[in-house]
Amino acid sequence: MSMSIRGVFYHPYRQSQRGGTMSTQFVLLLTILLQCLFASISDASTSIISEWNAPKPRHSRLLRSALLRQASNEQQNDLWMPLADQGWKPCYNAESASQLPEKSEGYIQVFLDGGLNQQRMGICDAVAVAKILNATLIIPYLEVNPVWKDSSSFMEIFDVDHFINVLKDDISVVRELPEEFSWSTREYYATAIRATRVKRAPVHASGNWYLENVLPVLQSYGIAAISPFSHRLAFDNMPMDIQRLRCKVNFQALQFVPHIRALGDALVSRLRNPTCQMETDTNQITEVTNEKSKQEGKYVVLHLRFDKDMAAHSACDFGGGKAEKLALAKYRQVIWQGRVLNSQFTDEELRSQGRCPMTPEEIGLLLAALGFDNSTRLYLASHKVYGGEARISTLRALFPLMEEKKSLASTEERASIKGKASLLAAVDYYVSIHSDIFISASPGNMHNAMVGHRTYQSLKTIRPNMALMGQLFLNKNLTWSEFEEAVIEGHQNRQGQIRIRKPGQSLYTYPAPDCMCQE
Ligand SMILES: *[C@@H]1O[C@H](CO)[C@@H](O)[C@H](O)[C@H]1NC(C)=O
Ligand SMILES: *[C@@H]1O[C@H](CO)[C@@H](O)[C@H](O)[C@H]1NC(C)=O
Ligand SMILES: *[C@@H]1O[C@H](CO)[C@@H](O)[C@H](O)[C@H]1NC(C)=O
Fold this sequence. Notes:
The protein is α/β, with parallel strands linked by helices. The chain has two domains: 96-255, 3-Layer(aba) Sandwich (Rossmann fold); 259-518, no CATH class. Helix content is 46%, strand content 8%. It is built from 24 helices and 13 strands. It has helices at residues 3-6, 25-52, 60-67, 73-80, 116-133, 154-157, 160-166, 186-191, 207-213, 215-221, 240-253, 258-272, 282-290, 308-314, 321-336, 347-352, 360-370, 389-398, 405-408, 411-414, 421-433, 445-456, 466-474, 480-490; strands spanning 88-90, 107-112, 136-138, 141-142, 172-174, 197-198, 223-226, 300-303, 378-381, 402-403, 437-440, 460-462, 516-518. The strands form three sheets. Strands 2, 3, 4, 5, 6 and 7 form a six-stranded parallel sheet that branches. A five-stranded parallel sheet has the order 10-9-8-11-12. The two termini are 34 Å apart. Mean pLDDT is 86; it is low at 1-52 and 277-291. One 2-acetamido-2-deoxy-beta-D-glucopyranose binds at residues 475, 477.
């Protein structure tokens, strides 16, 4: 955990490591101001990049071969085959041990920062803490993230009735602050030191820490507001019923609101039944339906987090030439005052350590080498791609049947989620969890959340070997077949096979053995 190193400087793709909520308000505000200030400069430089210096493919030799690739049937079968049964299943929640406390010790309130996937873990932990304390949970407050800027509330993202109903035998949950505590707001805590605020919960605090430090607050005041709360509950040395409860929240109680699920279902169905979209072109229908293969009706989700924030923070060279290098360096300077750990290393060092997020071109080459051919239906789960279409076009050349929210759903269908990062992320989460195969171009919160949730459901998830890929891409002499072979071999055991959680690791990424049982 490198929590203390980065301090208050927020980390774009490991939101989880950012510390305080209200104590860092000032810094966040400053960040936002700086971002606004910088927006005008950066917009200008982005357009220069895309107009005059479009990022060119960096691995053109590999790319040429990849475009001509032809995957064998055998390779295709292996690739699309569901994960072999590993003897692990979600534990059956039959314990009757769980019951509501006779009397509530008071109200627990939490304020959650980070993106949607980090907040999700905070919600699970909040339920566990309420259970440990025999307290009533107030529906968690979701902070507005300085990068994503979405003010959607818990109720606008998650189905609150479902949440309360699934947990009704475990803890009491209320939607809103009761009248007598209506003063206990975010603003109240932001303006002064307050006795009901628990500010110093250590990272990965034990259950006893809460009993010793928060229970007295509850008993004195009837309410305790914990902030910051992200990553404030340990994964180790927890009673089994608390662990099971965290699993239950993450995998059962948290369901998106109906309109997100409906849109998600529509996207999934259009990905699975592409012929419906081609009704006007009769030739194409027969062509598509005649093509019987193992992948019929199947799709891969590629999560691509490659926005400017991420690109700048990683300090790698992404092939956009001088203009891009300059723009990213400037961004680092403005947002983090140049204090980016990675910028002390050369691009080569970063790559061989696997610390560079893969570009759309690179993840495309990885997928092609694994055997995904050009008839693969690829859904792009992505917010903004730095460099825009110029950068995505290489990936699109490799996977012409690439889709995204925009290409699959009409403007009207997308109206309710437009410009709302958390809702957009929720739709991508939904489409991702329903996919046959999921892969992420950079490890981060979404990647971890999917690895965990898909492991729980025994679904295939490819975890890119970042260090291997970095090294392969540094070697400019590699032939396509050498590259292919190295990629296949390096990913054989990275397709979703069960990995037992080790001490210190997150139960939300490694659900076995806490949430999963061996048959
Ligand atoms: C897919 O690749 C094959 C073989 O290289 C090629 O003949 C075909 O035109 C490609 N299809 C598309 C849609 O690009
Ligand atoms: C919570 O309630 C249970 C059962 O009602 C009781 O055994 C336990 O001691 C209580 N814990 C606290 C912290 O009040
Ligand atoms: C690549 O090939 C060139 C010429 O064949 C050779 O000089 C160079 O050492 C090779 N580089 C690597 C990394 O193998």
